From TrEMBL:
The organism's taxonomic lineage, starting at the top: Bacteria, Bacillati, Actinomycetota, Actinomycetes, Mycobacteriales
Pathway entry: Siderophore biosynthesis; mycobactin biosynthesis
Gene3D superfamilies documented for this protein: FAD/NAD(P)-binding domain
Protein name: L-lysine N6-monooxygenase MbtG
A GO MF label: L-lysine 6-monooxygenase (NADPH) activity
Entry keywords, A to Z: FAD, Flavoprotein, Monooxygenase, NADP, Oxidoreductase
Cofactor(s) the protein needs: FAD
UniProt family annotation: Belongs to the lysine N(6)-hydroxylase/L-ornithine N(5)-oxygenase family.
Top-level EC class: oxidoreductase
Tagged with keyword Oxidoreductase: yes
Amino acid sequence: MSESPETVGTDLPVRDVVGVGFGPANLALAIAIEEHNAECPPRERISAQFFEKQDRFGWHPGMLLDGATMQIAFPKDLVTFRNPRSAFTFFNYLFDQGRLVDFVNHQTFFPTRHEFHDYLQWAARRVDADVRYGTAVEAVRGIRGDDGVIDRFEVRTADGSTVIARNVVMGAGLRERIPEWANPSARCFHNHQFLFRLGEMPAPAHHRFVVLGAGQSAAEIVQYLHGNYPEAEVHSVFSRYGYSPADDSPYANRIFDPEAVDDLHGAPEAERLRLLDVHRSTNYSVVDIELINELYATEYQERVRGRRRLFMRRASEIIAVDETSDGIEVAVRSGVDGLTDTLACDALILATGFTPAPLEPLLGDLAPKTHPPREVGRDYRLAVSPDVTAGIYLQGGTEKTHGITSSLLSNVAVRAGEIVTSVVTRRGRNGTLASVNAQDTYATSEAR
């Protein structure tokens, strides 16, 4: 359970951990804290509070497309790789929902995105954590003691409330990557909000859509639009010659293993960046081969029957957009022949990926000078000046230092345990919290 806050030299509550954001990463952290607190004496428990700007827990609800499946196996849930005996495993969720036998009979490692989202919501309801939904963090500022050292942070929220934290865990997530030429509107929007924007979109007049992007999300949206708008054309625009299949072979998938974080963080920077580039095909601008085959079969059958609705605009780019009274005109230029087609469309969907949320707006002078940061400890603690002993931990934005799992679900369980371990051991140096024991399920083998 989450410990009650204390007060130190102030009427404001002081917590060991304050989490900014409450997505899957900080949800996994809250579970690790609960399991730590259940295994140690009261004086060694961690007090924590989380702030989430959304009104309730949600994980990419705008992309919960019917039939879309996860790209990671279900054991990479919130806890299993850290503590398979946890009550928060995906298996226990299935048992609690009365679907364990049915899921096993389904013979798949990859649940639908709907089901995994339901699992995350189930875990968010069950965890004993102090979460303030509908509350955005506005600023994190250091508090200097009499010795001039910053050993605590003042965390201010948009509603004017303040809490004191010994450690801040940044789980603010990702920011949509929007092309410079794009002006987001009701007809031009990022895929992150796809289902919501589609529901708000004016009635189709041209029965034509353009989807920009070559990754899994782009391909899923192309398939969704083609199937749900049977009278509409769907134009998939990407710079490649064709969709590239994701490399999910067993050896390549080792880049997502918890041990890979040790290897990459300890490697020379040049070698780390080389490995990340070599293995981009495991995650970036790639599509599951089954979906590629389905789209190809659809396009081929349309050629056979003579009525085309699905168009692959390969080796192409969008060079101009112009919104009109009843739609949006999209100019698509082919890099192969140099010709440009202007398509009168009902919507342009930007499946253009994400970038880590910048730290400077919240951390101010405490933020690193580079984005993403280049100096992050193996325990995900941001390297700051020597006069800062309070901890800033990053749940994301650490791909350049820790590997591809930085912004993915693959490593949230182990990373949460490592952050709890770091908080405990750093406090242990001052005799406040317990040291890490080998049997503690929140601890990982690297930190014991």
